[in-house]
Each structure stands twice: as structure tokens, then as C-alpha cells.
Amino acid sequence: MQFQFSELTPSERYHLMVQSVLPRPIAWILTVNDDGSHNLAPYSFFAPVCANPPTMVVSIGQKQPGEDKDTFRNLQRDGRCVVHIASVDWLEALNASSATLAKNESEVSMGNIPLLTDNDGGLPHIDGAPVAYYCRLQQVTDLGPAPQHIVFLEIDKLVVAEGVDYVKGGSTRLSAAAINPLARLGGSEYAALGDIISLARPE
């Protein structure tokens, strides 16, 4: 079967894409609201872009036409965020944080999600999350009539939980099995890591 995307509605295109681009990593993004509370929301249109400068990209839509999501508003105002890679253990909390709440209602407070604050007094990160990237807003490109905000984030710092990092051959490595990342599929489906296949690249 073939699908001509020019003949489909945006909703039809979206559902085909999320049910076929699989699995997708999830950026669980923490930002600070203008009242000092914390917003937390998952995004699966997300990927690393390059290492120099260390950059990630996340696509953020709108709550409804003309109304930006809290994550984007907070990034535009404050410029900072923490991108977590959640383990499978966080499935229920992550899914609950995708609910649409009123401005300044905190998913962190509603979900009783524990936070850790570093000594530098900056943003906190989720206590128990295996991976947390401290990022700052680099640039935004808008696509489409809605628009969809394509947000580039530059990484300042990476925090990994105990047991995630190890040393092999004199180099620090991160264990995919220890991270046990949660992935997004289509509809209401999520996925766990499954089999890990190790295969050296050819010379």
C-alpha cells in the first residue's frame, strides 16, 4: 500500500508517522514556570543532532491553535531545561505527565516526582532518572501553519545515575541495559529496550 502525503490530512500523516518511525526516544523535559514551580512533559519527536556543539532537537507543537505549550513558553522566557531519558520504571509517571494542565499547574507536584538540586543552585533533575541533560535554548525554527516549533538545545552538562557509567579500555561508557530506556510507539503504546545486539563496524 502507498500513501501520498499530499492527499492526507495532518492528523492522518501524524498517525502514520508515529506508527512507523519506531521506536522513538522520549525527551522528558523539565522547565521552570514563571511562578517558580516546575513543568514536566514528554516529547518523542526528539533526537541528538551533533556533538560539536553538543546539540539536541525537539519538536514542540501547540496545546491548541494560538496557544503554546508550557514547555515552549518556559524555554522562551528562561532559556533552560533538563532533558531526562526515563527508564521503563518511570512509565506511569511519564505517561501521567503528558496530560494537558492549566498554566503553572505542576506535573511534578501532581505526580509527587522527587527532584534533586545540584550545588550550583540551577534547575533540579528527577531523582532516580538514569540520564539528565542540562540544556539551554540555542535556536527555534518554526514549520507549518500551526506552527510546529523545532527547538535546538545545547547541552551544558550530563548527569547519570549510579550504575549507569563504567570504564572499559580506559574510556567511560554508559550502559544501555542500566539506563533501560522507555521508548514511544504509536497510539497509546510504549516499548522497552529488548535485545541488545553488539556488532563491530567494518574497517
UniProtKB/TrEMBL annotation:
* Taxonomic source organism: hydrothermal vent metagenome
Under Gene Ontology molecular function, one entry of this record is:
FMN binding
Presence of the UniProt keyword Transit peptide in the record: no
Domain Flavin reductase like, which positions? 19-173
Instruction: Point out the coiled-coil segments of this chain.
Output: none
Spell out the SUPFAM superfamilies in the cross-references: FMN-binding split barrel (SSF50475)
**Name of the protein in its database record:** Flavin reductase like domain-containing protein
Listed SMART domains? Flavin_Reduct
